[in-house]
Amino acid sequence: QQQVKQSPQSLIVQKGGISIINCAYENTAFDYFPWYQQFPGKGPALLIAIRPDVSEKKEGRFTISFNKSAKQFSLHIMDSQPGDSATYFCAASRSNDYKLSFGAGTTVTVRA
Amino acid sequence: GAGVSQTPSNKVTEKGKYVELRCDPISGHTALYWYRQSLGQGPEFLIYFQGTGAADDSGLPNDRFFAVRPEGSVSTLKIQRTERGDSAVYLCASSLLGASTDTQYFGPGTRLTVL
């Protein structure tokens, strides 16, 4: 069963707009939450990651918001650009583990 | 190249055949992972190597799947008696040490199609 649930499945945003992707998890042992970006024909690449001891992490136009009590986290892409068009995966892992549990992915299309 | 490489990029085979998929990790990375990505899904963990040994093969779906990493670098994923349900993109990743917060660097994958 999928340990990380991701939504929406796809979204379309205008250039300059904000893309928001949400993920939820059940396993409270998870304590590392990375986001991966995947372009067609390529492998996923780490975009940004967060630990549950902080509620928000920002890197450039990408921000992760984390709500430990709700067991939810989200990725915000500010000022979306056509080059951001890709599939985004949230993931989670435990501190004594190494394997990542991925969400099903969100395909983001940024219209110029 | 500095990244993870995988060969072949595409493999088409017939049901019942045997296939081998190869992964060349980033030089110096001790940890190596195989994942499988079905269409429209996120990658699913198959197996993890620390050095030469398979530290965790709990994600392998059945005994038709096997992987080796004999010298602690290149790894080969082997699938016997392939079935149509094995069709997917097989991704390899490597990380420096294998700690949970180590960045996993993914290769471009091998797209396997079983006819």
Key terms:
heterodimer; A: 112 residues; mainly beta; 6-stranded mixed β-sheet; 5-stranded antiparallel β-sheet; B: 115 residues; 7-stranded mixed β-sheet; 48% strand
Describe the overall structure.
The complex is a heterodimer of chains A (112) and B (115). Chain A is mostly beta strands. In chain A, 0% of the residues lie in helices and 57% in strands. Chain A is built from no helices and eleven strands. Chain A is globular and about 40 Å long. In chain B, strands 2, 4, 5, 6, 9, 10 and 11 form a seven-stranded mixed sheet that branches. A four-stranded antiparallel sheet of chain B has the order 1-3-8-7, with no helix packed on it. In chain B, a hairpin with a 2-residue loop joins strand 5 (44-50) and strand 6 (53-56). Chain B is globular and about 35 Å long. At the A-B interface, strand 4, strand 5, strand 9 and strand 10 of A face strand 4, strand 5, strand 9 and strand 10 of B.
| Overall spatial form of chain A | globular
Fraction of residues in β-strands of chain A? over 45%
Give the largest interface: A-B, 29 and 28 residues
Q: How do the SSEs of chain B run, as a string of H and E? A: EEEEEEEEEEE
Poorly predicted tracts of residues of chain B:
none
Counting helices, strands and paired strands, the structural category of chain A is mainly beta
How is this structure best summarized?
Chain A is 0% helix and 57% strand. With 112 residues, chain A is mainly β. Chains A and B meet through strand 4, strand 5, strand 9 and strand 10 of A and strand 4, strand 5, strand 9 and strand 10 of B.
